[in-house]
Q: What sequence folds into this?
C-alpha cells in the first residue's frame, strides 16, 4: 500500500503491467504532439507574438505617442473627446495605457498590417481586445511591439484586464476597423 | 500477508539496488535536482532575457 | 535536542503516533480550516459581486475582498494543511518521532503571525493589490512582511519534514524505501523549498522598496521571479493532493500502487519539470523569447503533464485493482459502482480525481500553450481554470482526507455524518460548475478581477453578449451551492472537535480494518489483474483533452493576425 514502504526490497525491476505501458506511451505521444504544436504554429499559424520589446522611459514614450497622434489625427470622438487617429498602413502605431484610459482611439484598415506599440505610464494594464479576445500585458518602462492585422471591420473595445486600481473597471478604449 | 510479499515480491537480499532506485531513494539528491533545474532553465534564463531587452532609440 | 519518545497507538490504524507530531498536525489542520472559512466568505462575497444582478460589494471593498480571498485560501488554508500533511507523511507514516517539534511550533507561530499581519494590512484597505502584488503598484510594508514571515514558517516545516526522513532512516523505523505517499510529500516539500526561495528573492527587495530603501523594481523581472513562487506553489498543491489520493486509495481500499516504479518516476518528473511551467504566466509579457516560453511553459516537452497523466491512471487503477481483488469483478465498472459513494472520504476523493483532470488539468495545459494563451490571458477563464485545480482538485482532496484524518486523530465521531455524506457533492459540483461558468465567461472575453462588466461609470463602454451576463449569474448560483458545501465542511470539522462524541475503542469500522491488516492487494506487476475500467476512463479523458485542445487552436486561428 502506498502508505507503507514497498514490500519488495528492489522495486525498480518490477515488470510494469501492459495497461500502464500502453497509457504511458499514449500520454507521451500526446505530450510530444502538444509540444511541437507551438513551434509548428510559428511557421503555419497567423497568430504569434513577435516578442519585440524595448526599454523606454514613460515620458519619452508619451512624447512619441503624442507626436504620432497629432500627425494622424482625423477627428475627435464624440463621447470621450479623445483624438481618433488614422495611421497609414504598415506604420508604427502608438498606444498609451494609463490610469484609466487607452489613448488615443485608433482607426485601422481591414487587411492592413500595423506595428502596434503598447506601454504604460504608471502601473501594469491588460490590453484585452474585444470581442476578438486578444490579450496582452502592458508594462511601464517597456515598449512592446505587436504586429497586428485586423481581419474584420467593426468597432472593437480594449478592456483593461489587469487590475490597476480603483478605476480599473472604467478603463476602456476603442479601435475602429474599416 | 505482508511478509509473504517480501519473500516473493522480487529481489533477493543480495541483489544490488538499481541506480534509478538509489536516485529515487535519495531525498537530498532529489532536492538538489528540484532546485537546480528550475533555477537554471526558468529563473536564470528568464532574468538573462529580461536583462538583455534593448533600449529604445 | 530532547529526544521525545512519547507515542500513542492509534486504535483505528495501529499506527504509532508521536504525540508532539500529533499535536502539531492537529493545530496546523485546524488553523487551515479556520482560514478556509475566512477565505471562503471573501470568495463568496466576490462571486456575489460579480453576479451582475446582485453586485454585492462596492468597488473598493470588492478589490479588498478579492485580495483577501486569494491570500487566505491559496496561501494560508492550503499551506497550513500541507504542513499538516508533511508531518503526517513523515512522522506518522514512517512511525518515527518528528524532528524538532519545538521548531514546528516556531514555524506554526511564524505562519500564523504572518498570515494575521497580511490580513490586517489588507483589511485596513491600503493594500488591495491582489495576492500577486504586481509592481509598481505598492502595498503597505506589512503586507509583504506578513507573507515573508509566513513563508519562513513554511520553510521551517519543510526542513522538519526532511529532518524526520533522516531520523527515520537512521533509527531504521522503516525498511527499504519510504512509502509512496511520503515520496509524494517529499516531492511537495522539494517544490516548496524552491518556491519559498524564489519568494524570498523577490519579496524581500519588494518589501525594501515599499519601505523606501530600494528605488524601483523592474516589472518584468518581478513577474519572472514572483511566478517562480506563485506558480510553483500551485505545484506543491498538485504533488500534495496526489499524495493524498494515493493515501486515500490505500486507506479506503487497501489499494496498492500498480507499480511503485511508474508512480515514483511520475513524481520525479514533477521534481524536475513541474516548476518551470511558471513561464505560462509570462506568455504575453514583453521581451521574452519564444524559445524560453516554449521550453518552460511546456514543462520541457510536457514531461510533467506526462507525470500527471500517469497518476491519473494509476490512482483510480489502484482502486480498481483492489476492488477486483475483493471480487468486484463484473464487467467494466462494478468496482466503481460498488465503491462507498456515501463515505465523504471516498466521494470527495473520487470527485477530486475526476474534476482535477477534466476541469483543471485540460484547461491548464491548453491555456499554457504559447499562442493559445493570447486568447485566454487575464480573462475570467484563468480563475475558472484554477478553481478547477486548487478548489475541486486540491481543496476537495484535502477535505476528503480530513473526513478520515480528523476522527482518527481526535478519536471522535463526525459531528454531522448525515450532512457529511452530501458535502463533497455540494462543494465539488458547486465549485466545479463555478469553474465551468468562469471559463465560459472568459472565452467571451470577460476580464478577471473586474468589478463591473457593464461599465456603468466608464466614459467609453463595451457591451458583452447576454451569454456573458448569464454565465456570471450562473457562476453566482454555483458559488452559493459550493459555499454551502464549504460551510458544511467547516461546521462538521469544528463541530467534531468541539462536540463530537468520543469514539468507542472497538470495534473498528470495516474500511479502517484494512489499514491495520496491511495490504490486501498483492503487487500489481506481472500477472496482476488488469484495470480495463480505469483504462477506458483514461481514454475518454484523452479524447476529451485532444478535442478540446484543437478546438482552441481553431478558435485562435480565427482572430486577428499577429506576428
Ligand atoms: C466558496 C468557495 C469559493 C468561491 C465562491 C470562490 C469564488 C471566486 C471568485 C468569484 C473569484 C474571482 C474571480 C475574479 O473576479 O477575478 C475567485 C478568485 C480566486 N479564488 Fe476563489 N472561490 C472559492 C474558493 C477558493 C479556494 C478554496 C481557493 C484556493 C484554494 C480559491 C482561490 C482563488 C484565487 C487564487 C483567486 C484569484 C484572486 C485574484 O485574482 O487575485 N478560491 N474566487
Ligand atoms: Cu488598466
Ligand atoms: Cu486595469
A:
Amino acid at each position: 500500500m502506498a502508505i507503507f514502504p514497498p514490500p519488495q526490497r528492489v522495486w525498480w525491476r518490477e515488470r510494469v503491467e501492459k495497461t500502464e505501458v500502453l497509457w504511458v506511451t499514449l500520454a507521451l505521444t500526446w505530450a510530444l504532439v502538444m509540444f511541437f504544436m507551438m513551434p509548428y504554429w510559428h511557421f503555419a499559424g497567423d497568430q504569434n507574438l513577435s516578442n519585440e520589446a524595448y526599454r523606454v522611459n514613460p515620458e519619452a514614450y508619451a512624447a512619441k505617442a503624442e507626436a504620432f497622434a497629432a500627425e494622424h489625427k482625423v477627428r475627435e470622438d464624440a463621447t470621450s473627446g479623445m483624438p481618433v487617429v488614422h495611421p497609414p498602413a504598415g506604420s508604427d502605431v502608438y498606444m498609451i495605457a494609463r490610469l484609466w484610459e487607452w489613448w488615443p482611439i485608433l482607426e485601422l484598415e481591414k487587411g492592413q498590417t500595423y506595428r502596434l506599440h503598447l506601454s504604460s505610464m504608471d502601473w501594469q494594464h491588460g490590453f484585452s481586445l474585444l470581442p476578438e479576445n486578444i490579450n496582452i500585458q502592458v508594462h511601464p518602462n517597456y515598449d512592446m511591439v505587436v504586429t497586428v492585422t485586423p481581419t474584420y471591420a467593426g468597432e472593437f473595445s480594449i478592456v483593461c484586464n489587469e487590475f490597476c486600481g480603483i478605476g480599473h473597471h472604467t478603463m476602456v478604449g476603442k479601435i475602429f476597423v474599416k | 500477508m505482508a511478509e509473504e510479499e517480501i519473500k516473493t515480491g522480487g529481489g533477493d537480499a543480495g541483489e544490488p539496488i538499481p541506480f534509478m532506485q538509489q536516485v529515487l531513494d535519495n531525498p537530498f539528491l532529489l532536492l538538489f535536482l528540484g532546485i537546480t533545474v528550475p533555477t537554471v532553465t526558468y529563473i536564470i534564463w528568464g532574468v538573462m532575457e529580461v536583462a538583455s531587452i534593448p533600449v529604445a532609440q | 535536542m530532547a529526544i521525545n519518545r512519547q507515542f500513542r497507538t492509534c486504535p483505528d490504524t495501529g499506527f504509532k503516533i508521536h504525540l508532539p507530531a500529533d499535536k502539531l498536525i492537529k493545530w496546523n489542520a485546524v488553523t487551515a480550516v479556520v482560514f478556509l472559512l475566512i477565505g471562503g466568505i471573501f470568495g463568496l462575497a466576490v462571486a456575489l459581486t460579480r453576479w451582475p444582478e446582485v453586485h454585492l460589494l462596492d468597488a473598493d471593498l470588492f478589490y479588498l475582498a478579492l485580495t483577501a480571498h486569494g491570500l487566505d485560501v491559496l496561501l494560508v488554508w492550503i499551506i497550513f494543511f500541507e504542513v499538516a500533511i508533511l508531518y503526517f507523511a513523515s512522522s506518522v507514516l514512517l512511525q518515527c518521532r518528528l524532528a524538532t517539534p519545538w521548531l514546528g511550533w516556531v514555524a506554526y507561530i511564524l505562519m500564523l503571525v504572518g498570515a494575521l499581519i497580511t490580513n490586517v494590512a489588507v483589511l485596513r484597505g491600503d493594500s488591495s493589490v491582489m495576492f500577486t502584488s504586481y509592481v509598481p503598484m505598492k502595498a503597505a510594508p506589512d503586507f509583504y512582511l506578513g507573507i515573508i514571515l509566513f513563508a519562513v514558517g513554511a520553510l521551517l516545516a519543510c526542513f522538519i519534514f526532511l529532518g524526520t526522513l533522516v531520523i527515520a532512516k537512521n533509527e531504521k523505523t522503516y525498511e527499504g524505501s519510504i512509502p509512496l505517499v511520503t515520496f509524494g510529500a517529499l516531492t511537495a516539500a522539494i517544490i516548496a523549498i524552491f518556491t519559498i526561495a524564489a519568494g524570498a528573492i523577490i519579496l524581500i527587495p519588494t518589501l525594501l522598496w515599499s519601505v523606501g530603501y530600494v528605488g524601483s523594481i523592474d516589472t518584468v523581472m518581478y513577474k519572472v521571479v514572483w511566478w517562480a513562487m506563485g506558480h510553483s506553489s500551485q505545484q506543491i498543491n498538485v504533488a500534495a493532493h496526489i499524495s493524498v489520493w494515493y493515501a486515500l486509495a490505500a486507506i479506503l481500499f487497501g489499494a496498492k500502487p500498480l507499480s511503485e516504479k511508474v508512480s515514483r518516476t511520475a513524481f520525479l518528473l514533477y521534481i524536475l519539470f513541474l516548476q518551470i511551467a511558471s513561464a505560462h504566466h509570462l506568455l504575453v509579457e514583453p521581451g521574452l523569447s519564444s524559445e524560453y516560453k516554449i521550453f518552460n511553459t511546456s514543462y520541457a516537452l510536457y514531461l510533467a503533464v506526462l507525470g500527471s497523466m500517469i497518476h491519473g491512471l494509476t490512482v483510480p487503477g489502484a482502486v480498481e485493482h483492489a476492488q477486483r481483488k475483493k471480487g468486484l469483478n463484473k464487467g467494466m465498472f462494478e468496482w466503481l459502482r460498488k465503491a462507498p459513494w456515501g463515505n465523504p472520504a471516498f466521494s470527495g476523493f473520487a470527485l477530486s480525481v475526476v474534476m482535477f483532470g477534466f476541469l483543471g488539468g485540460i484547461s491548464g495545459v491548453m491555456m499554457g500553450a504559447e499562442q493559445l494563451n493570447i486568447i485566454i490571458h487575464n480573462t475570467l477563464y484563468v480563475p475558472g481554470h484554477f478553481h478547477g485545480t486548487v478548489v475541486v482538485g486540491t481543496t476537495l482532496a484535502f477535505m476528503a482526507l480530513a473526513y478520515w484524518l480528523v476522527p482518527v486523530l481526535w478519536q471522535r465521531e463526525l459531528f454531522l455524518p448525515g450532512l457529511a455524506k452530501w458535502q463533497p457533492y455540494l462543494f465539488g459540483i458547486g465549485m466545479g460548475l463555478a469553474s465551468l461558468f468562469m471559463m465560459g465567461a472568459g472565452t467571451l472575453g470577460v476580464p478577471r478581477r473586474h468589478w463591473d462588466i457593464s461599465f456603468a461609470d466608464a466614459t467609453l463602454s463595451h457591451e458583452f453578449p447576454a451569454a456573458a451576463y448569464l454565465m456570471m449569474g450562473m457562476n453566482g448560483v454555483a458559488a452559493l451551492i459550493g459555499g454551502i458545501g464549504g460551510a458544511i465542511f467547516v461546521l462538521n470539522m469544528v463541530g467534531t472537535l468541539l462536540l463530537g462524541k468520543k469514539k468507542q475503542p472497538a470495534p473498528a469500522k470495516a474500511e479502517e480494518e484494512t489499514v491495520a491488516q496491511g495490504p490486501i492487494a498483492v503487487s500489481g506487476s506481472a500477472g496482476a489483474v488488469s484495470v480495463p475500467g480505469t483504462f477506458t476512463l483514461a481514454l475518454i479523458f484523452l479524447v476529451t483533452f485532444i478535442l478540446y485542445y484543437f478546438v482552441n487552436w481553431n478558435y485562435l486561428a480565427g482572430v486577428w493576425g499577429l506576428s
In short: Residues 18-451+463-500+520-562 of chain C form a domain with the Cytochrome C Oxidase; Chain A fold (CATH 1.20.210.10). DSSP finds 16 helices and three strands in chain C. Residues A 100, 125, 160, 162, 164, 168, 171 surround copper (II) ion (ligand 2) (CB under 6 Å).
